[in-house]
Design a protein that fits this description.
The structure is a homodimer of 229-residue chains. By secondary structure, chain A is mainly α. The first copy, chain A, has helices spanning 16-30, 41-48, 52-64, 83-107, 110-129, 132-149, 153-165, 167-173, 177-195, 199-219, 222-226; strands at residues 38-39, 68-71, 75-78. Chain A has a three-stranded antiparallel β-sheet. In chain A, strand 2 and strand 3 (75-78) form a beta hairpin. In chain A, helix 4 (83-107) packs parallel to helix 9 and helix 9 (177-195) runs antiparallel to helix 10. The relative contact order of chain A is 0.12. Chain A binds a DNA duplex (30 and 30 nucleotides) through helix 3.
Chain lengths: 229, 229
DNA sequence: CTTCGTATGATTGTATACAATTATACGATT
DNA sequence: AATCGTATAATTGTATACAATCATACGAAG
């Protein structure tokens, strides 16, 4: 009886399809491919040294993730995230992160709580020094812990999707020392609420946290953050 | 300049892949395939008269929708919806339907409001007479109007997914005259709030509506509703 | 000069062939 | 009799070939 890695989820690294999927997804999120760029099966295939078949399968998945749009018999095009989309995502996320925090109160493990504490402690160090790369990593990880702790595969999956979706935008939202410090303080509040099993408070704080992040982004100019320069 | 049908979204009916996708999805949701059933590419392909290629592509999409799990080099297995999943979905939906109703206040058109009104009027007729099939249809349509009216592609897509996901369960939740009438009354309340552009109230009522639906389902025995007899 | 239509090329859609992996059956060994 | 190993079958993973569709270019008609 073999146990299969649950983390594989969708995109096993070891199949060609999985490799293509991950690579293209990363290239879209990192901004290598821009809005409305046409992705050609042969070109991508040659670049990665595979045939069209795994590329096509990866494309179908990317379409469902909303990263590309496939027009039958025509081609695959990178779907841009509009400013309205970003706003929608943050509003949706704020609701769902609240739910997630509330559920985490019931299901979080001692280890996860400890990792949160460590995360916040370390983030304080980097926040004060303006180490934005590390802050972005730590912020992502903090939310990731919460997603795991809520103990709902569906909510976890949903939130992770949105989180990835606005990744490039999100990096910029932490790009001031003030916001980094405030953000970490908000994490601290959420952490304490979860630790104390105060679901209502955790919900409120997590909801507010995402709202704040959005407001900050708007203040700093969503337009610049959004466009790829 | 050709205009492409936005409703196509992902699953155009006219490609083999789209047909396979829709068929298998429907068969899973309708209960033809049960939890942990193994779906074989060749078998599905022969059943629909297509080769393995479009079947494989459809499978990759179904995996991302969470309806099947693909284990590399092994097979595709139907992932069941557990009772916990159903609860999660209702809780998530309750939050998102609230958001949806609130947003609909800003964006709903006169035509959509009129269709809602008609929907409620007609539903009153069928509710009192215990026409559960029609009620189910009307209920789905009511929510569908709201999804369209919220004017957010992302939220609309998200809600529609979950709605589909619990379809078989949902049908049973309307299977009493009392619940049908109560449900329609709740729709009426949501409709009026949206009509009066009272976003806060619309949010609350829609949130409550989904909660009520869930509670009713639990009361009527989620276990029987969930299992395929 | 513009416009329409056809021809050509490029790209996607599908089917099939082959390779790699996994499951099963059966027999040999202990 | 139980267990291990090998051979065989079944199934998925990938590559390639062919068909269908779409885009482009170019020339003829007005």
């Amino acid at each position: 009886m073999q146990e299969y890695d649950l983390k594989q989820e969708v995109t096993d690294k070891y199949s060609l399809r999985g490799r293509v999927f991950n690579k293209v997804r990363e290239d879209i999120l990192s901004g290598k491919y821009r809005e409305n760029d046409e992705l050609k099966e042969i070109a991508i295939g040659e670049e990665l040294g595979v045939s069209r078949t795994p590329v096509r399968e990866a494309f179908r998945q990317l379409e469902l993730e909303g990263l590309i749009q496939i027009i039958p018999n025509k081609g695959a095009y990178v779907t841009g995230i509009t400013m309205d989309d970003v706003k929608d995502i943050y509003m949706i996320r704020s609701k769902l992160e609240g739910l997630c925090a509330a559920w985490a109160c019931e299901h979080i493990t001692k280890e996860q709580l400890e990792e949160m504490e460590e995360n916040i402690y370390l983030a304080k160090f980097h926040a004060e020094r303006g180490h934005f790369e590390q802050m972005s990593e730590l912020d992502s990880r903090f939310h990731e812990i919460m997603y795991e702790a809520c103990h709902s595969k569906l909510l976890e999956h949903n939130l992770r999707d949105y989180h990835q979706y606005v990744m490039r935008v999100r990096k910029k939202t932490l790009s001031t020392v003030e916001r980094s410090i405030a953000c970490n303080a908000e994490h601290q509040g959420i952490y304490e609420a979860i630790r104390d099993k105060n679901a209502k408070l955790a919900d409120e704080l997590a909801t507010l946290h995402v709202h704040k992040a959005y407001e900050n982004m708007v203040k700093n100019g969503l337009r610049e953050a959004y466009s790829n320069e």
